[in-house]
Every structure is written in structure tokens, then in C-alpha cells.
Predict the 3D structure of the following.
Amino acid sequence: MISKKFFLFALIALLGTVCAQSAAAQAANVPVGKIAVIFSEAFQDPKVGINKFAVIQNQLNTEFKKPQEDLDAAAKQVQALQDEIARLQKSAAPADPKAIQAKMDQLDQLKKDSQRKLEDTQALYQKRRTDLLGPLQDEVGKALDVFAKAHGITMVIDGSQVPGVIYASDTLDITRIFISDFNSKNPAAAASTAKP
């Protein structure tokens, strides 16, 4: 006859096995999330990045070519005036102090005007860049969301934005695959070309 202790021990062991099998079956039904890493700084690479970024950057460069040329010309004027003042101050013949002071006043005004023009141009450039890139960044974000869901990815970490991502295995890095997928579905010709 089976002793009560043995029967109780066998029952506990059987229950333990059934519970373990049930827990294993439940764990198999829980979706295992995939984590991927993307390096968004690569999006703006003119050679291997998202084509629409390159189109927008070229558009910005074209729009701001003239203001940049004006800034370069002003910088040359400042340098030429500084050189002229230095020559006057170092010349063997005595220079008229009033003439030198007039040149220095002219130089100060030219520097102030150049600085103001530089700040205005930078502000306009940043505003225009934001106006053009904002919608594209939204589009890329939505496309990344669709891409992640389509590939069963539950979390995407941007290695360009998160400090401390020192290494990511090639199997986790979806940067190139996503860029290729985005470029194939979103031709660069569709990028915004609206003027300010």
C-alpha cells in the first residue's frame, strides 16, 4: 500500500509539473518584443541618407547663396579696411590722426552692420530650415512607426540622440534598411520646393 507521505509527495510533484507546463505555455503566448537601434544622423548624409533631406539642403543652399555671398563680401570689406588702417598706422610718413580715426569709425560701423546682417541671415536660415525640415521629420517619424510595426519591432532607440549607445549589433541596427525603404517609397522629387 502507498503511504500517505509518498502519495502527498507524488501529488505535489505532479501539481508542480502541471503548473510549470502551464506557465511555460502562457510564456510562449506572450509576445517577445524586438528592440532595434537607428542612427538618425545618417538620415541627412548626402550620399547614403534620406534623399529628401539632400534635396532640401540643396534648396536651402540655393536660396541662401546670395545672402552668403553678401556676408563674404562684407567680411572682405572689413579685412580690407583693417589692412588699410594698419598700413596708415605703420607708414613712415606721418598719417593724419583724423583720417585714421575716420577709418576706424567706418570700420566699427561696418563690423556692426556685418554682425547684424549675419544674425538676421542666420535667423532667416534657421526659420526656413525648420519650415522645410519640420514636415519631412514628421513624415520620417510616421514612416519609422509604420516600418517598426510591419517588422514586429516594439522599441526603436535612436543611437544619435541617446547618450551611452556605444555599440549596437548589426542585427539591431535598422538605419540602412529603413533609409532604403523610405527612399523607395518616398521619391526625392516629391520633396517640398515651395519658396519662402
Observations:
- Helices lie at 4-29, 51-63, 65-90, 97-150, 175-185.
